């Protein structure tokens, strides 16, 4: 693994979401530098996916274990099929939901030119076509695949604003393209398509599982054991400094409160409400930003119950990982 000392500090540029900013981002990516950019889910830390030196920089800046592969971002389904074999159910699903918060894991093509670091040497590759207009312009102008994990240090909460990116990676990356807040606020849903057997849900995310199952007219398999899991889905992840107490009916003395839905529970307690009207879409958008705001060294965050349906499934997944023993 790379030690943080190996990183030479740089002045991280904050690029405006205009033509000049995009041109600068493209120039930096072309020169093998790292540029964080907004997607509709979370900010990604982008590198030229064809260049091992650039991709290695991503692992170093994030202090990410090299066995944890990256998602390849491309502008279209056609380009995705150059990187991996996108056929059958994978093609149908991508056709229905791209651009959007869906990542597919399919067999990698040998002649794609991708750096082996992107896939951590696996025979499969994770691919996504993002919908955010700035991400789309960046991909089109750059003209090649961009490898991009979430733009946080490994194991931490994903960033949903340029400020969050800078809080994590200032001085370690060349630039961040500032597109404001990410509209969805949760990472993409990852579905893999094994050559035998049904599609597998590797990570619940911004595209609800129910919608995917309806489109494919089949139930997704849930990963069995560690082998099938996305390598990055460790049990403890999205780790705030604070302790977390989930499914709380009310805060206890000394706790801060992360509420959901209407309620008087938190009237006299410091806290935030993910969605006073119990809207899961709004709650997803706020989740990571609110965790950051409430976080602190001697803090316990009591979290109201969130329904386990639609986006609630991904929200609860992230909360459980944030609460896991570390
Ligand atoms: O919304 C998103 O997906 C964001 C934006 C930036 O696109 N990206 C993101 O990347 O969340 P990251 O690296 O934080 O999470 C990607 C996950 C990791 O858990 C990784 O292990 C898994 O995808 N993954 C990547 N390639 C894989 C593969 N070939 N097989 C299984 N899992 C894979
Ligand atoms: Mg991540």
Features:
single chain, alpha/beta, ten-stranded mixed sheet, 30% helix, globular, disordered N terminus, binds threonylcarbamoyladenylate, binds magnesium ion
How does this structure look, described?
The protein is α/β, with parallel strands linked by helices and 326 residues long. The protein has two domains: 13-216, Alpha-Beta Complex (DHBP synthase), CATH 3.90.870.10; 243-323, no CATH class. 30% of the residues lie in helices and 16% in strands. It is built from ten helices and 14 strands. The strands form two sheets. The chain has a ten-stranded mixed sheet with strand order 1-8-2-3-7-4-6-5-9-10, sandwiched between helices. A four-stranded parallel sheet has the order 11-14-12-13, covered by helices on one side. The longest helix has 15 residues, at 280-294. The protein is globular, with a radius of gyration of 19 Å. The structure holds threonylcarbamoyladenylate and magnesium ion.
Briefly, what is this?
With 326 residues, the chain is of the alpha/beta class. 30% of the residues lie in helices and 16% in strands.
